[in-house]
Design goal:
82 residues; 2 helices; 0% strand; elongated
Length: 82
Amino acid sequence: MELDPVLLARIQFAFTVSFHIIFPTFTIGVAAYLATLEVLWGWTGAARYKRLAAVGALLSLARTAIRDAVVPALQVLTQAVA
């Protein structure tokens, strides 16, 4: 299989589109989940909602770390190939 420029451009586009779909969707979902947990914790005062919100905050932090580390690295790699 020969790697012509059109195929490489399509692969790069597939990576770009997948990251642009995955990260915003995950961000919106985690933000809504955290907001719901915080409201439930405020209404009920149950500690389990606060613990779940802390876990959700860690998920959000991990997503941010991945986005800030992986996406620029992929951009550098794809620019180096082109």
